[in-house]
Amino acid sequence: MSDTNAKLIYMANQIATFFQSQPAREAAQGVATHINKYWEPRMRRKLFKHIEHGGEGLNPLVLEAAAKIRRPEAAEAVINRG
Amino acid sequence: MSLIHEIDYGTPASKSEKLVTLTIDGREITVPEGTSIMRAAMEAGIEVPKLCASDMMEAFGSCRLCLVEIEGRAGMPASCTTPVAAGISVSTQTQRLKDVRRGVMELYISDHPLDCLTCAANGDCELQDMAGAVGLRDVRYGYDGANHVKARNNGEINRQWAPKDESNPYFTFDPAKCIVCSRCVRACEEVQGTFALTISGRGFDSKVSAGMNEDFVSSECVSCGACVQACPTATLTEKSVIEIGQPEHSVVTTCAYCGVGCSFKAEMRGEELVRMVPWKDGQANRGHSCVKGRFAYGYSSHKDRILNPMVREKVTDPWREVTWEEAYAHVANEFRRIQYQYGRDSVGGITSSRCTNEETYLVQKLVRAGFGNNNVDTCARVCHSPTGYGLNQTFGTSAGTQDFDSVEHTDVAVIIGANPTDGHPVFASRLKKRLRQGAKLIVIDPRRIDLVRSAHVEASYHLPIKPGTNVAILTSLAHVIVTEGLANEAFIRERCDWSEYEDWAAFVAEPYHSPEATEAYTGVPAELVRGAARLYATGGNGAIYYGLGVTEHSQGSTTVMAIANLAMVTGNIGRPGVGVNPLRGQNNVQGSCDMGSFPHELPGYRHISDDATREIFEKLWGVTLNNEPGLRIPNMLDAAVEGTFKGLYIQGEDILQSDPDTKHVAAGLAAMECVVVQDLFLNETANYAHVFLPGSTFLEKDGTFTNAERRINRVRKVMRPKNGYADWEVTQKLAQAMGLDWNYSHPSEIMDEIAATTPTFALVSYDYLDKMGSVQWPCNEKAPLGSPIMHVDGFVRGKGKFIRTEFVATDEKTGPRFPLLLTTGRILSQYNVGAQTRRTDNVVWHAEDRLEIHPHDAEQRGIRDGDWVRLASRSGETTLRALITDRVAPGVVYTTFHHPTTQANVITTDFSDWATNCPEYKVTAVQVSPSNGPSDWQRDYDEQARQSRRIAGKLEAAE
Ligand code: SF4
Ligand code: SF4
Ligand code: SF4
Ligand code: FES
């Protein structure tokens, strides 16, 4: 697990910790909306990659929210356009 | 252009709504009840002679020059202390009055040196003016008798005489010229609230002195300049006036230091700035100022200023001066190359909270329209981003709710994690004035800040929390309010979502939120919390003011929500005297946020994913905008270390010094291929820069700043930019070099574009600002005069939203290796990273950063006051000198971060706010131990900084 991966997991879990304390029906959507609104695509891309590799260390609420997090375009496509 | 002369009405305006009609010199005049005769006369254009009166202070009635006669009343009352009465008939000029006034003036002048021609106040002296006004033609008494004027009387030492006090770097005090009118003493008390001056002795023996016969610089004086402004003679005079002479024209502009946004008259002689004088019509400061805005502008002509663009291949090379064209071409080529090689998203920009709205707007426009991504952020990231997030969630807009005038109606002020007397001095003076009138004060802060106890001010409650427990204490306050039945249910039902309220109320009512339960980790006795909660909920108009001690935590955003909850549950929103007031750090933090500096939103806080908003800008700019949020500063640095972020354009920020975890910032910068720094000085970040573009000061450009009360103030150019170009011009040229078709010929055109695209700015234009003085946004069809107070008839988002605020302890925990908690702050005379203030005489008050430590902790470690100590955290270590004080609790240490050699941010960690990544500056676990000098890091850093500041062909500049 790279350093920045660890940071990303930490950040995602921090967000989950906040929404965990909110009414249960809003929690997962809260996490997803937050990440959609504030995370740049390469951060989300990394998050998905980590989840695909098992999502070790992630708060279960992040995993639950993943279905609602927007999947960014693939990285290659962006570079080609650059 | 001419010198702006403000009318001095002699006494403050009366706030009464009842009107009274009287006659003065045969003219009928109607004024509010309680107005003095002097003021009424002046409003009618009749100037009664005066010396001891000024409309900044209450009347005092000591000089006896302003006498008038009132028909049917005996004697000659002083017009400054006599209020108007209905139907009276006043004469301001009769033979009897003339004789008495001449006699009074004769006495004054007989004890005053007659060196008018060479006096610094010549042309700006009220004593001179009054001598002229009363027709004084000769003085019968000489200096042979007792006087204050001569050092020696007939060869004997004159004990009444005292030498000049030149200890203050910015003004002198010459007692020989003092007429003991006490205006200075009253200004210090009433306007500034410091009580540094006294009048000792009586009658002829009375004299003014600072403190207990100290010199100014060693007294309590904070060098605000209020006394200098109030002094009618040359006794208190700016050194710059002594040196240069009287100004000949003046221009109204805005201080570029803090978020109070004081208005000043820049008084000029040609292009030379003679002095900055606070402007009475300034709606934020009402004629007052602090030492920074008033005096600390010397950095603008400091020899360290870089005036030519510079480029270098590697950061280990010396700088090479180049032409502007070369510099622009170099940046354009590099950024294009990097984007070609590493992708469109591999570059970004940082806007400045010190630059104007217009300049900030252009930088974000350059990033979005020119770079084609949204990688733009601003230093507000590291200070008030949680304010934006928290208030937006709860109220629906990211801004403070009040104007500063509101404090005049406050009954209970709550200060959380802010130190206004140091950070926001002019607001502090206005608050203290209100406190002296009887308002109550609650302070929530780990440190005993000055407001807790100072001259004529004492907090009802000081809750000395352990750093990092804000959410716990605020939720406990809410617990008390809800469980003791103090909630304002009528307000909540009308304005807020009731079911959300019920959910929240049940949450805070849980026993584990009671003060008795939280005491264990907040360290605050439960009784204090209960008392404070009751006072805030029931004491009348309650206003919360908060600062970086709230936002710079891993739960910063949660804390802001907790504050908003408290204001809503008590109904303290939507009228004068109440509200939630973030005290912004830098001058234009508010503006830089408003202008779309954050990677996820366009100007006016509209999310980048919103198609309608993007369309507005796409049409105007002729580009397609990326609808994904960009990188924030910490994310940029992470991406740089990882190799996907390579180029950064930084306008007017010093992220290496101001951002946390210096080593990580340095690693990020070092990994980039083109770092462009635009600044006044070779700042710390410039050590890692490849291109340096010289910046201009606020004196050298037109624009606007938006202060903490959302007030848009004009910044006006008083001299040509020493570097040749205002910062907006530099950004424009850079954009042109990158192929963008920009053609602004004046910042007013940029503001017009902002107004055209941003609904909250719809009516703002330079013409309108000139007409109104200033306006507070929203300023549009719905609120043409601007909005001093927000959420008046309902919240911007509709219903106010209560949000649960669960306390989560930070992961930054003390332990055996790092047993103390470090928290950071600022001090009055210095500003942020100090790049400007360190280059002024303000260093006499703060030559270095010191570590405050409790006597108990110091003794345990064998540390004495003034010793060098090593301060270490898991991130790094530095050294500085200790200051032993019980202002901090045992277990807590405190320092400022104004000096680069201290490198306090080597110590801070990379923990950050969960919602915004605002760094957790306010809590770091540290150890303190004796040391004998700078750490290895400091030495290496100094050496590296020295190396990287070399300019080819120039001798090394000695700092
Ligand atoms: S400069 Fe300000 S603080 Fe100092 S004596 Fe004058 S009024 Fe008081
Ligand atoms: S120093 Fe100036 S303001 Fe103060 S008492 Fe003397 S003359 Fe008046
Ligand atoms: S630093 Fe702040 S308080 Fe001081 S003069 Fe400037 S704006 Fe006013
Ligand atoms: S001005 Fe009224 S007594 Fe001095």
Automatic annotation (TrEMBL), chain A:
Protein name: Formate dehydrogenase
InterPro entries: Formate_DH_dsu
UniProtKB/TrEMBL annotation, chain B:
Annotated Pfam families: Fer2_4 (PF13510), Fer4_7 (PF12838), Molybdop_Fe4S4 (PF04879), Molybdopterin (PF00384), Molydop_binding (PF01568), NADH-G_4Fe-4S_3 (PF10588)
Biased composition (Basic and acidic residues): 937-946
Matches recorded under SUPFAM superfamilies: 2Fe-2S ferredoxin-like, 4Fe-4S ferredoxins, ADC-like, Formate dehydrogenase/DMSO reductase, domains 1-3
Domain 4Fe-4S ferredoxin-type: 169-200, 212-241
Domain 4Fe-4S His(Cys)3-ligated-type: 96-135
Record-level GO cellular component terms: membrane; oxidoreductase complex
Protein known as: Formate dehydrogenase
Organism: Sinorhizobium saheli
